Backbone:
């Protein structure tokens, strides 16, 4: 089978790119012919198809007038359409698998696929298809103000990069895409990693108005050995941004002085969180800075357990499966797809988002009963190995592709 994978970035910036490259790796390792379509960038990984890549929009520089003038390009890119049309003609894919395309490639690429008669599956890794700012979250609160096509609320809320210019551009982008129904009429099947995101999409678009399947993100848990040993800390790792709820975790740590937290990561809230830890007098919290690869794996191995205090609707937190794969229990909130991965009191705990006392209680239980944390970690590893491996992902993906082509 010949598969064309489409994503706006051809270098790793986050979980969406991991999904994209891992899907490519698994397909190629099982004998399929795979092509890539993306945008030009100096950070790109090598690709034999780079000559087809489209130029990215220029929106972060220039005057306000120049930025507004570029809005047309981020709504519908004729260049991206023409470039992918040429790639389709040369590569002749059986199916096109689209990941993130908004702003950089735009739904114009979907029209090229439809005109060429090639079916499209679309993996939604965030909420951009229904929310101008991707997250359905801004200024500390969950938000569905743009439901029923009320995208002007993005401007009122100034929810896109805290910028009127970005919010206006994202509003126009969403209005045009919604008005012309650019996604549903050009996509055969949408793919979601969580039932939550699928059901939330149904609330915005209407139940039974689109086809969807569940496809968990690719991750091979089986290549990680379980580690039931533990040190003297619990662990948070991730971005220091508002929606991750790290401030709530710090307030919970004040209520559990016997426990010790190591926070790995950085982000725009770094200074704010350091200041909060100082005001709270937290002697049981250490900020480690960002870690990657083997250094991060080592920190996870030595942790007693991991905490995910997110206050937004996480779709598929890789933090959970990374921790499970090494055999660590996870305490997480009741938001988004988190409860679909954590089974309360089996491989971790679920608590209500924003509830710092509830979080402190769960931390206290696992901290004071390390044998329970180890037992939950063993359950977590078993779940991860059975659920997240290359064979399982490939089998599910092929079932979806064959269903679409059939």
Residues:
């Amino acid at each position: 089978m010949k598969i064309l994978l489409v994503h706006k970035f051809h270098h790793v910036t986050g979980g969406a790119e991991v999904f994209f490259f891992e899907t490519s790796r698994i397909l190629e390792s099982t004998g399929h012919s795979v092509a890539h379509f993306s945008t030009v960038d100096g950070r790109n990984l090598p690709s034999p198809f780079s000559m087809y890549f489209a130029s990215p929009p220029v929106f972060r520089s220039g005057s306000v007038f120049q930025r507004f003038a570029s809005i047309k390009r981020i709504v519908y890119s004729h260049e991206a359409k023409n470039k992918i049309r040429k790639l389709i003609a040369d590569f002749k894919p059986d199916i096109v698998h689209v990941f993130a395309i908004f702003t950089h490639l735009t739904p114009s690429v979907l029209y090229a696929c439809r005109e060429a008669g090639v079916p499209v599956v679309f993996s939604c890794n965030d909420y951009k298809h229904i929310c101008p700012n991707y997250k359905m979250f801004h200024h500390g609160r969950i938000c569905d103000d743009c439901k029923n096509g009320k995208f002007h609320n993005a401007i009122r809320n100034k929810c896109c990069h805290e910028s009127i210019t970005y919010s206006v551009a994202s509003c126009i982008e969403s209005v045009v895409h919604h008005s012309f129904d650019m996604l549903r009429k050009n996509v055969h099947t949408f793919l979601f990693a969580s039932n939550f995101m699928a059901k939330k999409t149904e609330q915005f678009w209407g139940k039974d108005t689109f086809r969807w399947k569940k496809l968990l993100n690719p991750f091979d848990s089986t290549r990680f050995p379980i580690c039931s040993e533990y040190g003297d800390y619990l662990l948070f790792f991730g971005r220091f941004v508002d929606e991750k709820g790290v401030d709530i975790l710090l307030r919970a740590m004040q209520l559990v002085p016997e426990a010790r937290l190591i926070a790995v990561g950085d982000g725009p809230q770094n200074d704010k969180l350091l200041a909060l830890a100082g005001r709270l007098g937290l002697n049981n919290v250490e900020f480690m800075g960002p870690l990657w690869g083997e250094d991060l794996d080592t920190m996870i191995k030595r942790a007693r357990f991991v905490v995910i205090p997110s206050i937004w609707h996480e779709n598929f937190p890789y933090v959970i499966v990374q921790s499970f794969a090494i055999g660590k229990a996870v305490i997480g909130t009741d938001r988004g797809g988190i409860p679909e991965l954590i089974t309360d009191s089996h491989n971790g705990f679920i608590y209500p988002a924003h509830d710092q006392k509830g979080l402190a209680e769960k931390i206290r239980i696992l901290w004071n009963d390390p044998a329970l944390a180890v037992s939950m970690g063993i359950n977590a590893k078993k779940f991860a190995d059975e659920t997240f491996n290359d064979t399982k992902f490939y089998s599910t993906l092929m079932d979806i592709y064959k269903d679409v082509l059939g």
